[in-house]
Amino acid sequence: xxxxxxxxxxxxxxxxxxxxxxxxxxxxxxxxxxxxxxxxxxxxxxxxxxxxxxxxxxxxxxxxxxxxxxxxxxxxxxxxxxxxxxxxxxxxxxxxxxxxxxxxxxxxxxxxxxxxxxxxxxxxxxxxxxxxxxxxxxxxxxxxxxxxxxxxxxxxxxxxxxxxxxxxxxxxxxxxxxxxxxxxxxxxxxxxxxxxxxxxxxxxxxxxxxxxxxxxxxxxxxxxxxxxxxxxxxxxxxxxxxxxxxxxxxxxxxxxxxxxxxxxxxxxxxxxxxxxxxxxxxxxxxxxxxxxxxxxxxxxxxxxxxxxxxxxxxxxxxxxxxxxxxxxxxxxxxxxxxxxxxxxxxxxxxxxxxxxxxxxxxxxxxxxxxxxxxxxxxxxxxxxxxxxxxxxxxxxxxxxxxxxxxxxxxxxxxxxxxxxxxxxxxxxxxxxxxxxxxxxxxxxxxxxxxxxxxxxxxxxxxxxxxxxxxxxxxxxxxxxxxxxxxxxxxxxxxxxxxxxxxxxxxxxxxxxxxxxxxxxxxxxxxxxxxxxxxxxxxxxxxxxxxxxxxxxxxxxxxxxxxxxxxxxxxxxxxxxxxxxxxxxxxxxxxxxxxxxxxxxxxxxxxxxxxxxxxxxxxxxxxxxxxxxxxxxxxxxxxxxxxxxxxxxxxxxxxxxxxxxxxxxxxxxxxxxxxxxxxxxxxxxxxxxxxxxxxxxxxxxxxxxxxxxxxxxxxxxxxxxxxxxxxxxxx
Length: 730
Prior knowledge:
This is MMPL family transporter. This protein is an alpha+beta fold.
C-alpha cells in the first residue's frame, strides 16, 4: 500500500499539470451537469413497507380523489377580539379566503370550515384544510407564496391568519452563516502551519472535493428522488474530512522537507505514509456511511451514499491532486519556520501531556470516564420523533398556527389521523363503516371521528380521527397502535380491514423503524471497522479500545443533544429557537458519521505510535514519541472539524442544527477526551500488550504496511531497491 502510494504521489507531483487539468475537467463537467440536469429535492420522509405507506398506496389506487399522498395545509383563521367568525363580517371574510385558496396553484380541494363544522366552541377560530394534488417537495416557493397571499386581505381587516402543514415547509438550505466554520478552519490552519500557502492548500483541495461531490449529487437529483438533507450532510462531511486529510499529508510533506528531502521525494514519502493512513481512515468513514443502506430506510441510505461518495472523492483528491498542487507550490509550503536542516528536538506540549498522562494514567482514566458518564446521563430520558409544526421557530407561521389551533381545538387538531377502511370483502359495507367509526370513537384519547368519505366503487372509505393529544405525544402513539389493533376485531365481525396513515402516523412509523434499525446498524459498522482496524494496527486490543472509546463518545454526545434540544439548556447561547423530541434519524446518523470520524483520529494518532514501535522503540517511548508527532496535527484537525460542524448550528432547519451540534460536540469529546486522553493512558497501562495479536491470526491477516515500514527500508537503504522504486514511479 505505502509503496504504491509513494509512486502515485511522485507521479502526480511530476505530472501536476495533467492531474490538475483532469480534476478541473471533472469539476466543470459535473458543475454544468448539475446546472442543466438537476431536479427538485424532496423533504418527504417515508419508508416503503410500513402500514402508513401501504395505506397511502391503497388510497392512491382506489381513492385518488382523497389526494392522500399530496401535501396538506391547515389554515387557522382567528377573528378580531370582540367578534366571531360566524357573524356576518367574519363569515364573509372566511368564505372569501376559502374561495381564493381554491384557486391557488396545484390545490386539489379546500374543506370549508362551515361545512366541516371546524369552528371553535367560542366561535372565534375557523380551521380550513387545503389538499394538494402534488407532494410537498414538488411545491415551489411560488406555490407556497400563492397559498399565503390571500391571507393579506383578511389580515387587513383585523383577522389573524396562520398556516401549518407540510405544504408550508420549504426545502432547507445552507446560508452564509455556515461558512463561518470554514473561516475558523482557515485561521486554525494558518496558526498550525505558520504559512498562508500551506494553510490555503487544504482549503483549496477540500472545496474542490466538495464541489465535485455536490455537483454529482445535484446531477443525480435529476434522475433520482433525493432527500433535501442529502447535499447538506455531504457538504458537512466533505468539508471536514477534505480539510483534515489534506492537513495530515501536508504536515508530513513539511516534515520530510525539514529532513532535507527534495520536494518530489517529500511528496512521494508523504503520500506513501500519511496517505496510507488517509486511505484507511477514509475507508472507515465510507463503511460507516455506506452502511446506512442496509437498514432499510431509503432516504437515510441516500444521505449515507452521497456523503460516502464525497468522502471517497476527498481521499482521491488527497492522493492525486494534493501532490500535484504541492508540485506547483514546492518549498513555499514550508514557510519561514521550516529549515532544510534538522533542528535540535524540543519538548513539545504534546510530549509533556503524554508523559503526564503516562505518569498518572489511573487517575486520568477515572476522571475522564466519570466526566463522560455524567454528560451522558440526560440520554436516559431521550424522546425521539420527527419535526412538526410544534417544533417550528416561535415566530414562524407554522408555530403560530399550531398554538392557535391547540388553544381553540386541542393539540390533536394539529395531527389528525387518516383511517382507511377496506370494505371490499365485507357483505354489508355500510354496517362495516359504522362499526369502524363507532369502535374508534370509544378508544381513549379520541376527540372526534368525522363521517366517512367513500370512493365511487364503495369499497374504500376514509375516516379522519382527531386525537386529544399532540402529534408528538406518547398518547397519540398509543392511539395509533390501538386503532390498528381494532382491524382484527372489525375483520372478524364484518370482513372489513383498517389501516392508519397521515403525516402523524407516518412519522410514528418512521421513528419506530429508525429505532429498530439502530442496534443492527451499530453491530454492522463496528464489526466491519474492527476487522479493518485489525489490518491497520495488527492488534486485537487497539481496535477493541477504539470501539469502546467511540461508544463512550456517542453516549456523551446523546446526553448533550438531549440537554440542549430536548431540555432547552443553552438554547439562547447556541441560537436554538425551539425544543422538543430529538429527530428520529439523528441517533443512527450520528452513530454512522461519528464512528467514521472517530476512527480517523484513532488511525492518525495510533499509526504513528505503531510506526515508532515497529521501528524498535519501547512501548512507553513509542506512545510518547508517536503522540508528540501526531498530537499537534490531530488537535488542529479536530478544531477544524468542530468549526465546520459548529457553523451548521446557525442553520434554519432544526434537523441541520442538531446534526451540526451533535457532530461538533461528538468530535470534541472523541478527539480531546478519548483519543488525546484515554488512548495514551490505556496505551501506557497496557504497554507491549497493546500490540498483542494471536500468531494464527497474524499469519492470516495480510500485511498492508500502513506505517510505511517496508517503504522506509527500501528508500533509506541505498542500492537497487531505491532505484527500482524511483524508476517505477517515472
